[in-house]
Amino acid sequence: MQPFLLVSAALFALQAGSPAREAAPAERSQVAQPKSDGAPRLGRWKVVGRSGRDWEATLFLLRREDDAYSGHLLWRTTSGAEASGREAVTGTFDQGTRLLALSGREIVDAVGNITHAEYRARSEDDGRSLVEGTWGGGSVVPGTWSAVWERTSEAARTPSFSFHSHELYNLHHFLYQCAKSAARRDGERVAGRPVTVVELDAVDALEGDERYAWLAAVDYYRRELIALDLLFDRRMYALKQLLTGIEDADGEWPAGIEEEHVLALRAALPVYRARFWPAHDAANRGWIATAVDALERHEAELVERMTSAYGGSWPPPPVRVDLCAYANWAGAYTTGGPAHVTLSSTDADNGGHGALETLVHEASHTPEMIGALRDALAAAYAARGAEPPDDLWHLFLFVTAGESVRRTLAGAGVEGYVHYGERAGVYARGAWAGQFPLLLEPWTAFLDGEINRATALARIAEAID
Ligand SMILES: [Zn+2]
Question: Residue 231 C-alpha to ligand 1 middle, in angstroms?
């Protein structure tokens, strides 16, 4: 627990967002974690191989649709000439022969003389081992490999982000929102904008031991936790650190979680696994797979646009992003020390190309990113003996993230992207309604390279009291 960092997290709070949105996780569940059909599991694999030189890799199997797979390999040599790269792979699994066949599509961030390959291996151990692996094709020196599935919530990794679908952390948020909904239904005053929980009927339909365990857990959250804000409260901050640190929910849990809370979570976990987690996990992994596709095309340019606009730097990569069926009322929130984004996979505003904006928006909340701009903004106001209006920095953040995504997509031939701030009505709300047009003109002139940052900020400080 680091109070200073908690304070900084609070300063960088997600302040604006859209109210409750209808979302149906089941409709977006196009990707499901394989049950016990022997197919390789989705998630992270540790790979070791040999082909003249020794090599090792982290394989992320990211998406499965029927027997089609896609993912990426992060690999490097461990003997001989140094070589490494990130290789996107697609392939198929044959139920009859239990053979997984993956083809490398392209390699980025390549070091050394390397090329993409064809990989084949047999799935064993209930989809947790890949054995008798071979690789070859084209100009590759043929070789052998094997892999073991790792019990971790990490589902994918890009240069700037590490994406997770974490069972207990999802359960925690789901119980929190179920408890808020139950309290509202009983006419209690509940802080924060409502989040629509689409599974309430399914919860009501639980029977017997399942019903007892679930309602007891919801009752604990209602009594102890729903009065606390997921972002601002110290106890909730400590809880998120503890819960995300548990990779095996069936194993030992760290000290620090209240005993009654542990009992509630442990009792609710089998119900969650049986009834809700498969759909939530599938929604999370589907969201991640789509976002990673978009990041493979746009990440480098987006990060460059964002950091140069702020005069800041990307926080130590990769930034951890936890996908949850339910996050907070705003659809996403970020805490510091280190940067950690929690993002709703079922929130429509986080979908499509909006995923890119949500990701860079949330990463912008870190001091490394927005800190330099906040200082420069304060200096521009100080020059005329004033202070910036509250939350004006956050309007900069919205506009910079939206505009960076719009420009990056337009450069790739995707026209007409609309900022989240516009889609969700954030720019039209409260004081921002008047400030937005006064900020937009000088700030886009800066982003266009027509004026420098200091000139833009000086004009904004003159225009907005
Ligand atoms: Zn924000």
Answer: 12
